[in-house]
Amino acid sequence: MHNLTIAQLAKGLQSKDFSSVELTQHFLARIAELNPAYNAVITVTAEQALKAAAAADKRLAAGNAPALCGIPILHKDIFCTNGVRTSCGSKMLDNFIPPYSATVVENFEQAGAVVLGKTNMDEFAMGSSNETSFYGPVKNPWATDCVPGGSSGGSAAAVAARLAPGATATDTGGSIRQPAALCGITGLKPTYGRVSRWGMIAFASSLDQGGPMARTAEDCALLLNCMASYDDKDSTCIDRDVPDYSADLNNSIKGLKIGVPKEYFSDGLHAGTEDAVRSALAELEAQGAELVEISLPNSALSVPAYYVIAPAEASANLSRFDGVKYGYRCEDPKDLNDLYTRTRAEGFGEEVQRRILIGTYCLSAGYYDAYYGKAQQVRRLIQQDFEKAFAQVDVIMGPTCPSPAFKFGSKGDDPVAMYLEDIYTIATNLAGLPGMSVPCGMVESKPVGLQIIGNYFDEARMLNVAHQYQQATDWHDQMPASIQQGAES
Amino acid sequence: MSWETVIGLEVHVQLATKTKIFSGASTAFGAEPNTQACAIDLAMPGTLPVLNKQAVHYAVMFGLAIDAEIGQESAFERKNYFYPDLPKGYQTTQLEKPIVGRGNVEIQLADGRSKNIRIHHAHLEEDAGKSLHEGNFRHGVSGIDLNRAGTPLIEIVSEPDMSSAEEAIAFAKKLHSIVTSIGICDGEMSQGSMRFDVNVSVRPTGATELGTRTETKNLNSFKFMEEAIAKEVERQIDLIEDGGSVIQETRLYNGDTKVARSMRSKEEANDYRYFPCPDLLPVIVSDETIEELRRNLPELPDARQARFVEQYGLSDYDAGVLGGDAAMAAYFEIASEKSGNAKLAANWTMGELAARLNNQDLSINKSPVNAEQLGGLVARIADNSISGKMAKEVFEGMWAGEGSADEIIEARGLVQVSDSGALEQMVTDVLAANQTMVDDYINTEEAKRKKKIDIKEIESVIAKIARIPPKSISRDDEKALKSLAGDLKISP
After folding, report:
1. Whole-model pTM?
2. Residue B38's pLDDT band (boundaries 50, 70, 90)?
3. Could you give the number of structural domains in chain A?
4. At what angle do helices A302-317 and A350-363 cross, to 10 degrees?
5. Is A151 designated active site?
6. What ipTM does this complex have?
7. How does DSSP assign A43-69, residue by residue?
């Protein structure tokens, strides 16, 4: 059952080939068996899941159940789940049980989806390798000595390892697309404002956006149908009808104009990755799409601008973790200052502390204009680059990340090398555009991701292109060798 | 050397919205600690602010009231600092684009002068919670009450246009009058609904450059403000005259102990690292909204004062006192209408009622005697049903909750008998009932009469019977009594 897609599982449930309880038991068993090798899931909610599955079966029996009714999923541990620990991958929130659920979580609940548990992640979503998690790194199912990417590495690895057919994730600078690429799955970061941020623990508020991860574009469309909603509890959420993202999947892509930015095929790009991406573009061209070389001249500025804006916002967003109200508190503080400094020094990991310090510095008197002010100007330039590009083309494509999954510890001493991992993904966050990663090849037996960037609220078109690509290729169906022994059940 | 004082004010005004500026929690005062703080107010992870539209409208109304530029697009910033009663670790406030721009407030001074005080701007922000330290909480423990956290405020920043405590107080009172008149603040100073930060500096008379200023924070009464300014001016002058210099610092004044002290110097001041709040969109107030709010803006104190002179024939002074305070003005107008005698209603509102409220430290909204009741009382005074003295007794009764004036007059039999025929009848009845005594009296030789009864004594007897306080006997009654005495041959 775990090799079926969400679309196939939904059909199976509707036609009573199996029940949601059976499906849920199956995936819970897989998590119990395989997760210790990957560390992708950090909280399993078996009891609640089985209860939800039984309820879903009743709804299914009554007929007219929503598409995702009875489908097991996992939530990234950044989404607050009422009554279930929500750690954000941090010691700071290791004991935090929210009394409310994220809007995304509620949307899935209403749709009858079954939550199996919560996935591991880089601490407060800060990282591109999942090495910053308080709960230890997630291992890439394709090569367990390699990182799964981050920060949604737990969700990506879990989907790749068939521990769940789909999962929620978030993307601030590439945190959906990069791990999707490194784990050989499909992931979509929607337009900023498309998915509610209520109950999603903030890293950098102007960049954070939740989105789905699954094995296929078709499944991502099903998940996005449920995730996307207008929410008056999030002032930055945009009040705009949610289309049926599944409706246009089978449209022909004949005549589609694909922009290929020359800046995305630069020196740092792994040759194998480039070949895989070029082949994918050729496939789409063969289907009738037109490739147009474009330029995004300010691309090189996106990483430095991002590493000012994101830490600046994070430095304020993370001030609430002070040991006063909830979460970690140091032992026996001798005064208020001691409470603050030790709580935060002990509760936050190194990367989080680094970013808080960078952000605090960038916002300090005398530095604001040179850093934060400048970065905001760059952000506008990057937006303008994309506006010009989308006047010419329908979608933009390139690699999701410069190279396939790297080994644990290989970038540990060099934060900047790690930051460059997101060089192709960050610009879309700065512009607020939707972006997607689709498996498009293998290099050194590790997956490569093709990035599709769309215009604002053009997710349906991106999913259409991705689906058409997946109809003609089978990269998304590849299965990591490490899980194949469990493949028969 | 003679010195002049320069004063500027920053005034925090709690807006009278039902819910908080960024959450749906209640803003009501006085609840059990932390019962009015929701997940957003507690800054729980993943929670987000949603701006209270009413707070925006109230801020715009203030802008309209002081004839200010209204920021059609304003924006929120985060002001970062750590304190336990600031749950997010930053205050959401406005810096670069405040909602209210430059405006003007005219103040009236005791010598009859008026003066314009310029407003630099007013911005929207959230209030912090309260820290309860030892003495106010448990021994050895500090407590945090977040009920107040997120209460909407406007902070009004004046130019340093005041040159004395009198002007500063007049300005503060005028602001109080404006915000209560337009209904955006309940004006309850003792509950912290208005709090004043006072910037004070001194300079040699005639100097053009400003001296170094200090800021005394969080004064919540006009009296404390006056004391704090007087003390600070004196301290600065003494310091300079002794060869020292004023250092820029934030100070606190304790109104109970009358002690002022330094809180922190400029060097210790926080770098607040302001930056635009990414959780909130810029606030756009449309021309239509501004015009609608302008059309519906309640009467401003100056206009009301003028109307009171015109409509009720009050003196400028009375109109100023009654018209300056929204609650008092509303009270007066009801009392006046009910009584049909504006001047008498004004006297009673400003006199007996205000004195009593002041005495018991009550605001007029909390008065045990409501405006209808006072109007009912004034009506009975105006139609001569009761004397002024009796009215005070009735007022006492109303204050004690015994009911309306008429009910109390009835219950206590407090009817002033001013009809001389009735009085005569009463006397005749009394005399008839005591015919033997009267006969004895008349038949006794004048010299042997035990006591000479004069008008005063008769008055006293009659008054006792009629329950009239002797001093309030009317002229008519006096005449009636004189003729009575003549008839009775007991003339003086």
Report:
1. 0.88
2. very high
3. 1
4. 100
5. yes
6. 0.96
7. EE-HHHHHHHHHHHHHHHHHS---TTT
